[in-house]
Amino acid sequence: MQTTTPTRTRSLARSLARSLARSLGCLPARLLATAAMALAPVLACAQGAPIKVAFIDQLSGPLANVGEIFQANLKFAIDDANAQGGVLGRKYELVSYDNKLSAQDSLSALQSAIDAGVKVVFTGGSGSSVVTALVEAATRHNERNPDRRILIVNYASIDPDLTGARCSFWHFATEANTSMKMRALADFTREQKDIHKLYLLNQDYAHGRVWAALGQQMIATARPDTQFVGATLHPLGKVKDFAPYISKIKASGADTIVTGNWGQDLSLLIKAAGDIGYDPRYLNHSGGGAPGTVLAVAQAKSGKLTWVSEWLPNTEDPALSALSARVKQTAAGEYFTPRVLVSVQLVTEAIRRAGSDDPTKVALALEGMKMKTALGEVTMRKSDHQLLLPQVVSTVAPVDGKTVKVGAEGTQYGFRLNSVTPAQALDLPSACRMKRPTGV
To answer: Name one GO biological process term (predicted).
Structure first.
């Protein structure tokens, strides 16, 4: 499709306005100019103006590597969609904002995105407090500005409140939430007879506290013979040496650490345990897919990191393997997050079904959507906008040629499959009481 420049668009608008004037005969010049301005965006859309989407996550600071991985995966997904022709004859245009792991900076980025004409914001890697702030701000904005609405698509923050007590019509979660992930892990513990005493060590923010609470509740239900021997919260992204925490945990007699840590907080925790020869099991939500984690386990030569994701990174599934191979050629490298690709695919299909990129129409099209993906069939629940997708439990372990055939991060450690929980089994109750826009 031929690209139309802003100058040509304005010229077309003026020409059309003049034709309109000739047919009407007597419109004042001021009204003709107004007509030309009003027609310009319509003509731009007709000529295939891009659909603007935004990335808002951390690209600086101690956890910048996590944000960079999500940004690279999102760019891959956007490029993939554009290579297939985009949607409605239009391509996506991705703009990125560094929120510096700050809720305040995220809100500034959101306003910049709105001013730039962004329709959908992809976010989630900065944690639940940041995503909650973005969702609440977007909800207020959309109520006050029905002609400039915006959607939040959350691919990583897994606090159940985001699709529970704090659910919003304008927010969609494409990652399994904490309850779903902990359910998969709790089911895994039923068969692990080496788990007896557990310690809760978590980051001191909303999700860290939720991970600890759900861990104690669900694992105790699955394994009533186990004992929780301690609990500690620590500052998010600020601890440089976890040795004091590890010494305390080891002294408690714990053989398992239930931790929602991610990024450097998980890598440094594993390192500290390795430094004193402590060999616990870690029950974690997504750390195995974060940069540096497998390397930390390989260097420590101790610790069994068991985590949950939507896929097994060294999968033999043909479709996922092919996608993973393509991602390795991008800035994301070996850190493929299929749910980010699925997020873009869902939005694309919703725009196609809606016949518009209007956020209200797109949201309505997303609700209840079922779609076949490389992960299998996924469903976006209408009741709370939580995506139902399978969860895979795996453990970082040495390459043995049988259960682990491929190493990760340049090491001889990869991922051993433990169990797969299908999407349908994770259709858990939600506390959401969705407030829908007037007239919807």
So the answer is: amino acid transport
pLDDT at 189 over 50: yes
Axis crossing angle, helix 206-222 with helix 178-189, rounded to the nearest 10? 30
Residues 343 and 266 in one domain: no
Contact call for residues 107 and 140 (beta carbons, < 8 A): no
288 against 115, higher pLDDT: 115
Alpha helical stretches, state H, 367-414: none
Q: Are residues 133 and 272 in the same domain?
A: no
Give kind and range of the element (H or E) at residue 208: helix 206-222
In a domain, 290, yes or no: yes
Length, in residues, of the chain: 440
My answer on whether 225 and 301 are in the same domain is yes
Specify the residue for token string 């557990």.
Answer: 198
The domain tally of the chain equals 3
| 433 within a domain of the structure (yes/no) | no
Find tokens 């725009």 and name the residue: 351
Which of helix, strand or coil describes residue 125? Answer: coil
Residues 269 and 296 in one domain: yes
297 plus 421 within the same structural domain: yes
Q: Which residue has the tokens 């974060």?
A: 290
CATH code at position 67: 3.40.50.2300
Distances (CA, A) of 142 to 41, 62, 127, 137, 360: 21, 33, 23, 9, 9
Q: Give the span between the Cα atoms of 269 and 237, in whole angstroms.
A: 12
Same domain, 302 and 340: no
Domain identity same for 62 and 124: yes
Query: What is residue 356's three-state secondary structure?
Result: coil
What span, in angstroms and rounded, lies between the C-alpha atoms of 56 and 107? 10
Tell me the one-letter amino acid at 396.
V
343-371 in b/e form (b: 16+ CB < 10 A) is: bbbbbbbbbeebebbebbbbbbbbbebee
Q: Using CA atoms, how far apart are residues 231 and 216, in angstroms rounded to an integer?
A: 10
Contact assessment for residue 180 and residue 426, using Cβ atoms and an 8 Å cutoff: yes
Residue 197 structural domain: 179-309+390-425
Per DSSP, what are the bridge partners of residue 47?
none
Which residue is associated with the tokens 């260097």? 299
Tens digit of each residue's pLDDT (9 = 90 or more) over 302-349: 889 999 999 999 888 999 999 999 999 999 999 999 999 999 999 999
